[in-house]
Every structure is written in structure tokens, then in C-alpha cells.
Amino acid sequence: MAKSKNQFVCQECGYVSAKWMGKCPACQAWNTLSEFREAKQRRGWQTGSSSVTKTAAPTSIASVKTAQEPRFSVDMEEMNRVLGGGIVPGSLVLIGGDPGIGKSTLLLQISNQAAKQKEKVLYVSGEESEKQTKLRADRLHIHEEELYIMSETNLSVILQAAEAMQPRVLIIDSIQTVYQEDITSAPGSVSQVRECTADLMKLAKTKGIAVFIVGHVTKEGAIAGPRLLEHMVDAVLYFEGERHHAYRILRAVKNRFGSTNEMGIFEMKEAGLTEVKNPSEIFLEERSKGSAGSTVVASMEGTRPMLVEIQALISPTAFGNPRRMATGIDHNRVSLIMAVLEKRAGMLLQHQDAYLKVAGGVKLDEPAIDLAVAISIASSFRDRECRAGDIVIGEVGLTGEIRRVSRIEQRVQEAAKLGFERVILPARNLSGWQPPKNIEIVGVETIEEVLQHALGGA
């Protein structure tokens, strides 16, 4: 029998210590180390008569043959886009999100769409009984014969069922509820999550099964459990949005088989999640034209251009230190752009409160939104509205210069498709492409030129 020992593991980052400490040396969190007993050597998961782990000899990289990863797609194009073109057999995908956001609904719909293609799907729920899963499936009108459901938390039983059934897709909802019998710690602990994920990874890689696992999130929004969990999987997807709003955003933060900048938009309805084909129209449908402080920017989310409204409210402060608040934009970037406007454009903003928001709940972090943020702040400060048909694109430098951005042609084409009349962009982006005939292009080099064109010299 394998010897065991007591260890103390941080529940936030997975740091292992031989003795208890009040503060974790790795993540600096207090009172997160808990005791558990773990065997020094665990018996590996066996499949049939042979072990999963095989002895491998080193191979010359020149002799390794490469081939395009085979994928199979589901009916949701938004999901295929985020995954990089479809589901890769043998991949391990982690999906996280707030409680009630729709993770289980999304995965059950994906399971149904894969089952429609005569692919076997095993949906394992550790939080709901089979009858409860069936009730949710009836609400979503899911009745495919190739979709199998199972209510189980013992990972050994789940692996045996997957070995016997050989599904094309395996879904674990959620990783915090499953456990290994030979680990003494409770389900959801660092050791259980780490070892269960390792066994699921062996199953995915050796049998070519696409495995989706659901991960709970902490109050800060990060996936609960050790950070090692995100390193082990092939892709990490975050399902974002407000439970009281209809729209949901599926964002890839790690993907070994595709871009990490892709984003999918869904709308939650009574019959489940439906994909949003044109998110630009959704984010601009409630825009109030002719209001000061409102600017539209063309932002790139992966390979997709998306038009989003940026709103700013500048008002005199009632306190000694003005407030700087931003939703959907880094507040440090807002402070930087306000400093550029004050130094290069002569705007006295040091006694003004600034509140900025990206309409629709989208988070923007690319440099191309700098110019739109600057125009929104200047428009609200001078109380002068921008033209309703204007799009502003560009990066703002500390000396007030407007720097070029990438994929300008796709951004301009999206603006022309939605009926915008004029695009203000960096002058260095004017060469090398042909703009559409039904839209005016204005190239600018400094922040003063931008203010002259957008606000009439505000």
C-alpha cells in the first residue's frame, strides 16, 4: 500500500507546503491553506489490459509528419468561431462563468447539435439528477437518440462508462463535483481538481474524445481551483454577461487550436441560447443620436470587426480628488488619454470627474479605441455632439500623434455596411487599400486635427 503524508495546499493557487501558514507565500492570500492527505503514488487509470501511459522514445522533429487537425462543426457558428473552426477530437476544453449565466444550457445545446450529426455524446452532470437534466432538455426541445445523460460524481465510474461507450464528445458538469476515491480530500479541492483533470486529459488524448469540463468561478471572476487547471487544458472559454440581460458573450482566453481573440455573441431566450449574427446592430440599436459624449468605434474581436458605442460623462468634481470610473475600458488608459488631452489640446480636466462606459457590456482592450475615447471625453467636456454618421479609429500617442492600427480595411467595410458616412482614421492607414465608394475617409495625424474634424475645433 502506498504511503501517505499530510500536506497543506492553497485553495487559491495550489501552492503546497509541509506545514500550515496563515498567508500563502505564492499568491499572498490569507487563510487559504487547508490540510489534506494524499498518497505518494497513485495507481494510473487503466483502459482494458494496457495502461494509458506508454513508453515513448525521442523523435527527430524533422521526421514528424504534420496534418491538419480534423474538426467537426456544430450548428452554432459563434461557437465554431470561438473554438477556431469547430471541435477538435481529443481536445480538453474548460468553460467558466458565473452561476446561472447559461453554461449548462450552452453545452446541452452543443451536445444536441453534435448528436444530430450521429455523433455519440455523453453528458455527465454531477449537480443534477437525470430527471432534472431531462426537464431542461424538454424545455430546449432536445430529444436526440445519440445523446446520453448520466448523473455521477465518481470519476472512475465516469471513465469506465466512457471507455465502454466510446463517445465522440464527453461533457463534465462540473469539475468541482467529481472526485477520485483514492484521494482523501473533498470534491472541489485542489488535489481532486488537479488529478481528475489529469485523468480526463489522458482519456481525451488516448481515445480522441473531445472533453468539455465546466469550472466554477470565484467572486473575482476567475475559475476556481488551482491555476494549473488552465495550463492543463487545450482551451479556456469564459461565458460572460449579466443574468438580468439577454445577451451573453463567449470569449476565448486560451486556445491551442485557434485565435485567443475570438468572441461569440448569444442571446438567452425561453427556448435556449440563439446566436447573434450581427452584433454591431445589437450594440448600436439603442444609440441616442445627437448626444454629447457619444462616439462609435470599430473594434476588432479576433477576425470580426464590431462597432461599439463609447459614452463619456465629464462633470465638475465636488471633491479635491476627481473621480475616474470606467466600465469596459481600463481606467488607467482613460487617465492617460485625459492627460494627453490636457497637455496637447489645452483642456482643463484636472478638476473634472470622468465616467466612461462601453454600451452593451463589451470589454475593449485594443489600442485602436484610444481616439474614440478621446473624442467622447472632449465631446462631453465641450458639450458638443459628434456627427451621427462618424466612426473614429486610431491609437493616441503621448505626444498627441495618431498612430496606425491593424486591419483598417475590415473596420471601414463594417462601418460602410451599417450606413455610416465618414471614418476618421490615422493618416498612415490611408495607403495600401481601396476604401468603399459610399463612405468618406478622413486621415489625421494629431489630436488637434481630430478635434477639428470631429467637433469643429472643440
Summarize the SSE layout with pairings.
Blueprint: E1 4-10, E2 16-17, E3 33-39, E4 46-47, E5 50-51, H1 77-83, E6 92-97, H2 103-116, E7 121-125, H3 130-139, E8 147-151, H4 155-165, E9 169-173, H5 190-207, E10 210-215, H6 228-232, E11 235-240, E12 247-255, E13 263-269, E14 272-275, H7 279-284, E15 294-301, E16 304-316, E17 324-327, H8 331-344, E18 352-358, H9 370-382, E19 390-392, E20 395-396, E21 402-403, H10 408-417, E22 422-426, E23 440-444, H11 447-455
Parallel strand pairs: 6-10, 6-11, 7-8, 7-9, 9-10, 17-18, 19-22, 22-23
Antiparallel strand pairs: 1-2, 1-3, 4-5, 11-12, 12-13, 13-14, 15-16, 16-18, 20-21
Helix pairs in contact: 8-9, 9-11
The gist of it:
The chain is built from eleven helices and 23 strands.
Structure, explained:
With 458 residues, the protein is an alpha/beta fold. It folds into 3 domains: 1-39; 72-277, P-loop containing nucleotide triphosphate hydrolases (Rossmann fold, 3-Layer(aba) Sandwich); 282-455, Ribosomal Protein S5, domain 2, CATH 3.30.230.10. Helices cover 26% and strands 27% of the residues. The strands form 6 sheets. Strands 8-7-9-10-6-11-12-13-14 form a 9-stranded mixed β-sheet, sandwiched between helices. A 4-stranded mixed β-sheet has the order 15-16-18-17. A 3-stranded antiparallel β-sheet has the order 2-1-3, with no helix packed on it. A hairpin with a 6-residue loop joins strand 11 and strand 12. The longest helix has 18 residues, at 190-207. The termini are far apart.
